[in-house]
Write a structure and sequence with these properties.
alpha/beta, Rossmann fold, 7-stranded mixed β-sheet, 8 helices, binds S-adenosylmethionine
């Protein structure tokens, strides 16, 4: 029997880790904590909003959708978001969460601004018909220090998808699109990427956004 099991529940799809006592992974854009985050200043005060330079109808490609939180937050601020996810199971969980959000009166408008594409961003970026206005990359960088280890749902996600060891190749690929704004989320302690100096960085408690303006 495999370690991870995808289950259907009355609340929607969820992913169970049989080797952990942690709650199954379930994406729900209307959960209390996330709703509070969205409402606080309309999300505009969030570092990510500043890093991406949000404005209505800004087209953002989120290359690393994961739990879809960053995409949903950006869409709630009026951005048109395309999210890429290469894990088939994560893409299924996202698809299910988006379907529920579209059926909800409060979330339908935001969810309607998000399109999910299953696949590897390094390949999908090369196939874009036009230069993306802004690109967001939030990979699961290998955490070297204990303090940089991820917690909660992200910890679950890391156990499931592993570390994105090829993250730098993705950054290079994003640069090659010629997009004017590339935003890379990294642990605070991580060094700058060789060859690429960010135009500016925004620092939070544990992570920072390196912003590359081209
Ligand atoms: C740290 S999580 C992203 C969390 C996300 N920002 C959020 O708000 O929930 C990284 C996710 O990106 C996905 N990923 C990493 N590299 C990718 C790539 N090259 N193409 C598509 N998805 C990728 C992983 O499968 C994982 O689900």
């Amino acid at each position: 029997m495999s370690r991870f099991i995808l289950q259907n529940s009355d609340k929607g799809l969820r992913l169970l880790d049989r080797f952990s006592r942690q709650h199954p992974l379930h994406i729900n854009f209307s959960d209390a904590g996330f709703s509070y985050r969205l409402k606080r200043g309309g999300g505009r005060k969030e570092m990510i909003a500043k890093a991406v330079g949000v404005k209505p109808l800004l087209q953002v490609i989120d290359c690393t959708a994961g739990l879809g939180r960053d995409s949903f937050l950006l869409a709630s601020l009026g951005c048109e978001v395309v999210m890429f996810e290469r894990s088939r199971v994560m893409a299924l969980l996202l698809e299910d969460a988006l379907r529920r959000a579209l059926a909800s009166e409060q979330l339908a408008e935001t969810a309607g601004r998000i399109r999910l594409v299953y696949g590897d961003a390094t390949q999908l970026l090369r196939r874009q018909p036009s230069t993306p206005q802004a690109i967001l990359i939030d990979p699961m960088f290998p955490a070297k220090k204990r303090s940089a280890q991820v917690k909660g749902e992200m910890q679950f996600l890391q156990r499931f998808v592993g570390k994105d060891e090829d993250a730098l190749a993705l950054v290079r690929c994003a640069m090659a699109t010629g997009s004017k704004r590339i935003v890379l989320k990294r642990p605070n302690a991580a060094p700058e990427i060789e060859d690429f100096k960010p135009s500016f960085s925004l620092k939070g408690k544990s992570s920072r956004f390196d912003v590359f303006l081209q």
